[in-house]
Amino acid sequence: MKKNTRRFCINSFSYTVLGIGAIIMLVPFIWMLSTSLKSLSDVFVFPPTLFGEKILWKNYLRISDLFPFGLILLNTIKISVFVLIGQLVTSSMAGFAFYYLSFRGKNLIFQLYLISIMIPFHVLLVPTFALLKFMNLIDTHWALILPGLVSPFGIFLMRQAFMSIPAELGDAAKIDGCNPWGVFWYIFLPLSKPALVTLGIFVFCGTWNDFLRPLIFLSSNEKMTLTLGIYNMQGMYATDWSALMAVVVLSLLPVVILFLLAQDVFVRGVALTGMKM
User: Fold this and answer.
1) Backbone φ, ψ for residue 128 (5° rounding)
2) Rounded to an integer, what distance in angstroms lies between the CA atom of residue 20 and that of residue 200?
3) Mind listing the pLDDT tens digit for each residue in 140-156?
4) Are 250 and 63 in contact (CB under 8 A)?
């Protein structure tokens, strides 16, 4: 009886703390949505109110008058999808090679990949910029796509996912005449779908929300991404905060929808990738 009471108290305390934390994290999002539906005068009312005198849905219609939202949205989708597909392909193939295949220097190369994860990407910006300038790719979308096609973290994640799959399944397929490519395509890849979805969410969200690299590598307005568009909406002397928050709400929708659709697979993928080292 005492154990059940103590367990109930611990669970109640845990749920209370988690609930308070969830509410605190939701407040900025609620305020962002509220601001997007206010007039500019209601934004600066003190004390602040959750809603203004009128709910102005027309703030979302004014976005296209301020900057080319449709073009910038397409640019962001294009870059994110290319990087997503590229990393899923390269990370899954490299992770399979580091786990299942045998070749000289495999462990050393993988350790170097792990070390590269610890290097801040800011350190690589200057050499990356110099290389892209030599290739005449500055101010093109390829400047954001090509460096993002390979990820040491993605390779590590997929290798950990493949390690949860018994190697005997691949050995049995090889006995039946399957080559390494067939083992990867027909056995390991279908069994690693949760890890692929997890990696896909990480890659898509990271590319979608990237600000520093587009700021450095892009200069043309017609090629900028959503993060740059939102940044450019902040004026030197005045900012249309209602329209700005409307753009932010719309820019968050694809990421939120993607996570809601794949959250079960995402949680399972994170759990599975850490089962075996």
Assistant:
1) -65, -40
2) 30
3) 999 999 999 998 889 99
4) yes
Query: Does residue 36 lie in a domain region?
Result: no
DSSP the chain: -HHHHHHHHHHHHHHHHHHHHHHHHHHHHHHHHHHHTS-HHHHT-SS--SS-SS--THHHHTHHHHS-HHHHHHHHHHHHHHHHHHHHHHHHHHHHHHHT---TTHHHHHHHHHHHHTS-GGGGHHHHHHHHHHTT-TTSTHHHHGGGS--HHHHHHHHHHHHTS-HHHHHHHHHTT--HHHHIIIIIHHHTHHHHHHHHHHHHHHHHT--HHHHHH---GGG--HHHHHHHTB-SS-B-HHHHHHHHHHHHHHHHHHHHHHHHHHHHHHHHHTS--
Question: Cα separations (Å) of 274 from 95, 159, 191, 271?
Answer: 14, 10, 15, 6
Domain count of the fold of the chain: 1
Structure tokens at 115: 């070390």
Q: What digits encode the pLDDT tens for the residues 8-17?
A: 777 788 888 8
- 1: in domain: no
Q: Is the pTM above the cut of 0.90?
A: no
196 part of a folded domain = yes
Tell me whether residue 85 is in a domain. yes
Kindly report the CATH number assigned to the domain that includes residue 225.
1.10.3720.10
Domain extent, residue 135, equals 66-273
Is the predicted pLDDT of residue 117 greater than 70, yes or no?
yes
- Residue 79's closest CA among 154, 148, 145? 145
Q: Is the pLDDT of residue 237 over 60?
A: no
